[in-house]
């Protein structure tokens, strides 16, 4: 009986996290298109519902009622598995994200490694989709994205090492609590910039959206997908973007902590600050989509391996020496 | 406790079955997918015995990096449908004897290792390691690896570096007549160098000096 109660409780908690995330993914897509429109002096989606808020809902309905077409020469099992894997991985990483000091589903010791592992797995959704479609454009997109995501994971890993040196724990709550006096964005500002750009590359956002570059590859790995399966790729992609925004705010912007620890600000519940920071980071993602042209592939690789990797390695050495010299290493 | 055992058998059965399918499946890309599934279930087993750091490292290093490159190579080599002709006895291949020899050697080595483990009291000098339950296993691994075993750790790093350089030396070819782009030139290009504004007379056209 007790086990059932526990299972019930956990399911309840998981639903309470996942449903808002899915809803906010829908809203964030609207927000993204709206910002994109305003930057380019257009209106963006503004017809369905107040301010066009229900546009994504209408799109989702359209996807649901569309026919799912599986190409005759596709590898059917892998073709169907690919969007499922993408979406499952993007949502399962949220299990360890602390939205405030009490709101976390699973408070594990190696939280940051878990997120890193899940985000390195998410490349499989794209590779499987591209390969199983058995067609030129998706395959090229999959190959591109595999190389791109592996390259930028390396620099994200080293940036995380920088933060971990200052924290001394792999637990996400500890990482946030270590920033009570000073957010890591101040001492590690160059790393924050590198993290942000790597996050763009990791989630295949413009200017690094080469796996789905429409001018070259039609729609990259999604070319053969239609209906709900395409929508699942899409949901997974945006859930991943939100996840990296959340990770950025936990690592550098103090998570659920208020900017300064004074009365009216620290009375606001932590989840508000967390959502606010995620939204700010996402706003920057959306702006960059609108204003930056796409990188060429060799430029992308050069940026990852020849600039970000050495730079973040040097910064690891600098941070470590600084901490050792001034005896600030966390015990 | 029962739930623990159930999960253990669940993951181990997946691990063993997918390991078998790695060998059996005809499609090499499917074989790599099964290998990934095997890695993931092994990582789950690691986490279940409380070695969460090792489990996560398994996921990050093997699944997130090594297997991706594996998949990359297999997909690019285009060997998707492997013919199982030797199995049906229609074609002779030289793979089987070599594979059998390697398999036997590995089996013998495993027997030696397991035997050494069973019949010696201390396999490695581990008595001086003090286990403190206050620390997480990430702390413990770091403590041991960077203090007592620092030399072994560094030597393994150097071996990996050598292997990497060796691979690059083996595959690097200097090709003649390849056009490369100079980033310095591209970045330092100014508007004045590349754009000229001219007043064009009607019906005359313009002659550029070059």
Greatest contact between two chains = A-B, 28 and 24 residues
What is the helix fraction of residues of chain B, given as a range?
Answer: 55-70%
| H/E topology pattern of chain A | HHHHHHHHHHHHH
The named CATH superfamily of the largest domain in chain B: NADH-ubiquinone/plastoquinone oxidoreductase chain 6, subunit NuoJ
- Number of distinct beta strands of chain B: 0
**Ranges of chain B with pLDDT <50 over ≥5 residues?**
none
Rg over alpha carbons of chain B = 29 Å
End-to-end gap of chain A: 42 Å
Number of contiguous helices of chain A: 13
* Count of β-strands of chain A: 0
Provide the CATH top-level class of the largest domain in chain B: Mainly Alpha
> Which percent range describes the beta-strand content of chain B?
under 5%
What percentage of residues of chain A falls in helices of 4 or more residues? 55-70%
By secondary-structure content and strand pairing, the structural class of chain B works out as mainly alpha
Number of helices of chain B: 9
CATH domain topology of the largest domain in chain B: Four Helix Bundle (Hemerythrin (Met), subunit A)
Question: Which descriptor suits the 3D outline of chain A?
Answer: globular
Structural overview:
The complex is a heterodimer of chains A (331) and B (210). Chain A is 67% helix and 0% strand. The termini of chain A are far apart. Chain A has one domain (73-325). With 331 residues, chain A is mainly α. In chain A, helix 10 (227-251) packs across helix 12 (270-291). The radius of gyration of chain A is 20 Å and the shape is globular. With 210 residues, chain B is mainly α. Chain B folds into three domains: 1-83, NADH-ubiquinone/plastoquinone oxidoreductase chain 6, subunit NuoJ (Four Helix Bundle (Hemerythrin (Met), subunit A)); 94-121; 124-173, no CATH class. In chain B, helix 1 (2-24) packs antiparallel against helix 2 and helix 2 runs antiparallel to helix 3. The N and C termini of chain B lie far apart (84 Å).
């Amino acid at each position: 009986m007790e086990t059932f109660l526990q299972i019930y409780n956990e399911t309840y908690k998981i639903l309470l996290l996942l449903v808002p995330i899915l809803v906010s993914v829908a809203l964030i897509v609207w927000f993204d298109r709206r910002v994109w429109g305003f930057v380019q002096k257009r209106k963006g989606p503004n017809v369905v519902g107040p301010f066009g808020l229900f546009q994504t809902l209408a799109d989702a309905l359209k996807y649901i009622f569309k026919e799912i077409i599986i190409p005759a020469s596709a590898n059917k099992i892998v073709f169907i598995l690919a969007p499922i894997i993408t979406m499952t991985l993007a949502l399962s990483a949220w299990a360890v994200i602390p939205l405030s000091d009490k709101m976390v589903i699973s408070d594990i010791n190696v939280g940051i490694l878990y997120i890193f592992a899940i985000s390195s797995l998410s490349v499989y959704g794209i590779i499987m989709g591209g390969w199983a479609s058995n067609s030129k454009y998706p395959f090229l997109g999959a190959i591109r994205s595999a190389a791109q995501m592996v390259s930028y994971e390396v620099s994200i890993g080293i940036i995380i090492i920088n933060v971990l040196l200052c924290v001394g724990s792999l637990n996400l709550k500890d990482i946030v609590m270590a920033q009570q006096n000073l957010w890591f964005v101040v001492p590690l500002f160059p790393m924050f910039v590198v993290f942000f750009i790597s996050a763009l590359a990791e989630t295949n956002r413009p200017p690094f959206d080469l796996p789905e570059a429409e001018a070259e590859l039609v729609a990259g790995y999604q070319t053969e997908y239609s209906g709900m399966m395409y929508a699942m790729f899409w949901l997974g992609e945006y859930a991943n973007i939100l996840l990296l925004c959340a990770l950025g705010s936990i690592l550098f912007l103090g998570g659920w902590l208020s900017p300064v620890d004074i009365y009216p600000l620290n009375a606001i519940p932590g989840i508000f600050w967390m959502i606010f920071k995620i939204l700010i980071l996402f706003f920057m993602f959306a702006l960059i989509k609108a204003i930056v042209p796409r990188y060429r592939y060799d430029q992308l690789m050069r940026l990852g391996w020849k600039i970000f990797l050495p730079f973040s390695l040097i910064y690891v050495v600098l941070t470590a020496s600084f901490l050792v010299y001034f005896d600030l290493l966390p015990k | 406790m029962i739930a623990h055992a159930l999960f253990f058998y669940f993951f181990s059965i997946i691990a063993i079955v997918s390991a078998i399918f790695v060998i059996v499946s005809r499609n090499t890309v499917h074989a790599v997918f099964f290998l990934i599934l095997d890695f993931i279930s092994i990582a789950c087993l690691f986490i279940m015995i409380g070695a969460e750091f090792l489990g996560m490292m398994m996921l990050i290093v093997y699944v997130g990096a090594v297997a991706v490159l594996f998949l990359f190579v297999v997909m690019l080599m285009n060997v998707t449908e492997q013919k199982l002709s030797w199995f049906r006895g229609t074609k002779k291949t030289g793979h089987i004897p070599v594979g059998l020899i390697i398999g036997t050697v590995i089996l013998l080595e495993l027997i030696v290792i397991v035997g050494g483990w069973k019949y010696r009291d201390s396999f490695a000098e581990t008595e001086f390691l003090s286990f403190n339950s206050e620390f997480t296993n990430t702390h413990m691994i770091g403590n041991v690896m960077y203090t007592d075993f620092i030399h072994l750790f560094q030597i393994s790093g150097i071996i990996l570096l050598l292997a990497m350089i060796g691979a690059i030396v083996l595959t690097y070819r200097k090709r003649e007549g390849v056009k490369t782009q100079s980033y310095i030139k591209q970045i330092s290009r100014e508007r004045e160098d590349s754009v000229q504004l001219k007043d064009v007379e009607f019906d005359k056209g313009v002659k550029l000096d070059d």
